[in-house]
Amino acid sequence: MIVSPKLEERLGGYQYMQLLRQYRYSILPDNNPAVIRVRAVMKRLIAAAGLPDVDWEIHVVNDPREAPNAFVLPGGKVFVFSSILPICQDDDGLATVLSHETAHQIARHIGEKLSQTPFYLFGSLLLQVLLGSSMDFSALVSILLEMPASRQMESEADYIGLLMMSKACFDPRKAVDFWARMQKAESIQPMEFLSTHPSSSTRIQQIKEWLPKAIQTREMSDCYTTTNNFMDAFAFMR
């Protein structure tokens, strides 16, 4: 890692301001039921992740032109596009998405990608020198190095997120159902080795392999008491 957390947060802050301007007419108000729901789920995940001191800002964007998506910028800036909510269906599905995106921040994947970029550029230039060619090898380096690394980060975020949502007393088994629905919703399914993300079928297979540990994590949490406390807090917020 050659990028500091401070730099990540600063870059995230710039992007955050740009997104606020871009979606200023599409961001739902705080009293919207979708916003209340997303914030309630995030509150449980933040507690499970041990990140209460982050300056969290949570926004739901209602823009029908946007594909189903959600992401968390460095510094705790959360954006959820309303088009993903029907695919989530319930709080467990929403927790699957939000825990995955929060896990990217825990693992500092943005900083990792920024740190790797100079090496990818160097690799492309090195191939040009060694082969004595003017050809641009950046696409080859991307397929052989950058995309596999990105898929690994996505799988890591799936794993961390699955344990996080389990610790927060969501049902990790519902993560399988979410990715099955996402697979049906995907209009185009590119070949995995040409993608920065694992295929939905790969994700489902991996999550099934991780489920025993996730279920054990949930059982070790005091979920009955915790869930009741969260329900009481949610009722108070409403």
TrEMBL record:
Domain of life of the source: Eukaryota
Protein name, per record: Peptidase family M48-domain-containing protein
Source species: Lipomyces kononenkoae
